[in-house]
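Posting for a labmate who doesn't have an account.
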Amino acid sequence: MVKRILILAACYLPVSVWGNALSLSNINVNQAAQTVSFTAQWQNSWRVNVVPFNWDAIWLFVKWRNCGVDPNTAWTHGTLNLAGSTVPAALQATQKDGTAGMDVDNLGMMLRQNTPGVYPTAGPYNITLNVTNMPTDPVATPIDLKVFGIEMVFIPQGTFSVGDGNNGNNTRQFSITAINNENAIALPILSYTTQNAPAGFPKGYNAFYVMKYEVSQGQYAEFLNTLAANAQANRYQNVYYNYRNMISPNGTAPDIYTALRVDRACNYLSWADLTAYLDWAALRPMSEMEYEKICRGPQAPAINEYAWGSTNISVAQDISTTVPAEDGSEVILPLGARNCAYGNVQFTGGFGPGSNGTHDRYGPLRVGIFALPTSTTREATGATYYGVMEMSGNVWEWTVYLSAETASQNFTATLGNGNLDANGNHDVAVWPAYNITIPATNNTPNKPIGGRGGGYSSSTGDLRISDRYYTHYQFMGDGLGRSSSVGGRGIR
């Protein structure tokens, strides 16, 4: 169940990059017609008209750049036209609210199954996108072009609850409260006070899409390869071989950055790194209330529950050893008996490369690793109510916290525009700033950003759906800080 992103360069040989279970292949660019055609295929797709009334989808977008330009030139985000595109009958374009069609920003296309069902293998599907801002003369203005795909899951509009009732360990949980609209609300917090959520703050009631998996190392490397050189320097983590992060700058242009383990969750993502990636992909950060909706859905809260809806948890330790090892097909042994990466376990098996260093044995696993064809329950796969993977454990999820601070109060569901500033930072005014500073004291509650869901080095308490410990205590020093256990994902 590994996700795939596939990429093409028109001035160079086509390059395939693997990510979680999505592959894009057979890419062909017609500049005169302003089209790019390709074949899409992925695994474990669904669309159901019964509980939980949702589906998965693929978010497709395009980046292009004139051939032979200075390496300090960023790639341009493609503008798409649904009317000029060709989508097979088996698929349907969908807007961010789940209705048919394409969002008016024209920055990408979301495709879901057209017919209800379960699709262990979806595709191959032949797709053509009309890229309206692509140069039309391949002789006068030849271009490099890349097509990106991200697997998403639809979260339908509906009532849900925040908080699970646990008031222990100073977790600063919300009191159990039903969220049944997006209006302003005064939300009580156990043993503390009440926080006001303005109408614009995303509360999770409205429908949205969320990434099925955490940002992978392959995805992040490909993001780096479309930035200007100075922006790359700001966004590259430079932690190759540290805690299973395998992104290096030793590739060949135009793909300078490569990921030796493309399916592995990307760690060392600061707030600045993640929000840059989300702005670039025309996504946005999630709020902490949306995090609880994704995990719990409409079900009643259960005290101390994890993302899979129970209090049962089993730590991953033994990675299968195959040849080549950890190539995207690795699993956790014994099969189906483990459902989470936490507790700073020293892994056995697998491949680093090497045999015993911290780059091998401590760190995140590949995304979706617990979802096996033989595992049919949320608890066995570690899946949320809606089928989103690894929302407890593996790497922390950056979220926008509800607080009295201006950065929180001004946050809205505004999407990224596909472009970054000259230094490789997000440029969305209503998101908390890329360089936001978190107070250094351990007794300052309710910061505007922080972590949910815990990571591979966390204790079990941090992994619980409603735990808000890191609104109250220091989280990573500041928004520019990077940690080996922090990653994230985005929403549309």
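Reply:
Got it, the structure tokens are right above this. The helical segments are 217-224, 229-235, 271-280, 288-296, 358-361, 378-381, 406-409, 469-472.
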